[in-house]
């Protein structure tokens, strides 16, 4: 009976580690996609140090989970006590780091308000000055998501005009409609847009557009994170049970 129980734990641990292996592969794939994606995310990530760091953290976490799942599978199948102990300690550290990150994200979510982004835009945005990291990032966001400002074009009324622009009245050209929503996309009518004709402008604010775009994915990511934490916890329990059961 004890042998059957040990065999059951061994294969259950292999199964959980296989899911960790797949989760790591998915994180690795998403991280690579965010960095090399040609539709605008690459520019946003490269221009924003926080996103740039986050993308590489995702890559590192994906690689670690990928390796960890592989080691856990090998330790379970081969019943190697050293691999199992290494697996347990490593996954415990990752579990605590992920739990801490989730708690910090929950605590600081209040800072990412509409008012915060509006104030930052009015203070730091320099319109079409793409040599400025903040402005270049905002321009990439507005072009990619076909939106304008945080709340709408009215956000730019307090932003100074560029001295060499003869057309620009209120909004930057990143708010103008394009046939294809990328920097290479042709303007529908740039001159009419910049002189204030609304039908050639993107009128919706980026806060609402991005919130609507990612709302489903946020809940999906939260559910996935909870699932990953649960799998890691069970994997640790099975690793210790298998470790103690191996003679």
TrEMBL record:
Keywords: Glycoprotein, Membrane, Transmembrane, Transmembrane helix. The chain crosses the membrane at residues 12-36, 56-77, 84-108, 217-243. Belongs to the tetraspanin (TM4SF) family. It is found in: Membrane. The lineage of its organism: Eukaryota, Metazoa, Chordata, Craniata, Vertebrata. Signal peptide: none annotated. It is a multi-pass membrane protein. This is Tetraspanin. One of its GO terms (cellular component) is plasma membrane. It comes from the Eukaryota.
């Amino acid at each position: 009976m004890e042998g059957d129980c040990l065999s059951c734990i061994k294969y259950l641990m292999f199964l959980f580690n296989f899911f960790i292996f797949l989760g790591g592969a998915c994180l690795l794939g998403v991280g690579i996609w965010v960095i090399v994606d040609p539709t605008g995310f690459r520019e946003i990530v490269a221009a924003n140090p926080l996103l740039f760091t986050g993308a590489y953290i995702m890559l590192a976490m994906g690689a670690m989970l990928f390796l960890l799942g592989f080691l856990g599978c090998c330790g379970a199948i081969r019943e190697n006590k050293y691999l199992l102990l290494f697996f347990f300690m490593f996954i415990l550290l990752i579990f605590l780091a992920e739990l801490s990150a989730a708690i910090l994200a929950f605590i600081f979510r209040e800072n990412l308000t509409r008012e915060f982004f509006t104030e930052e835009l009015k203070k730091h945005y320099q319109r079409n000055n793409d040599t400025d990291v903040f402005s270049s990032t905002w321009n990439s966001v507005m072009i990619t998501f076909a939106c304008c400002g945080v709340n709408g074009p009215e956000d730019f009324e307090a932003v100074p005009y560029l001295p060499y622009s003869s057309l620009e009245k209120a909004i930057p050209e990143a708010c103008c409609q394009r046939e294809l929503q990328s920097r290479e996309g042709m303007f529908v009518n740039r001159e009419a847009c910049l002189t204030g004709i609304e039908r050639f402008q993107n009128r919706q604010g980026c806060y609402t557009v991005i919130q609507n775009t990612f709302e489903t994915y946020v809940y999906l990511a939260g559910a996935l994170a909870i699932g990953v934490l649960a799998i890691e916890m069970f994997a640790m329990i099975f690793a210790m049970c298998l470790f103690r059961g191996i003679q």
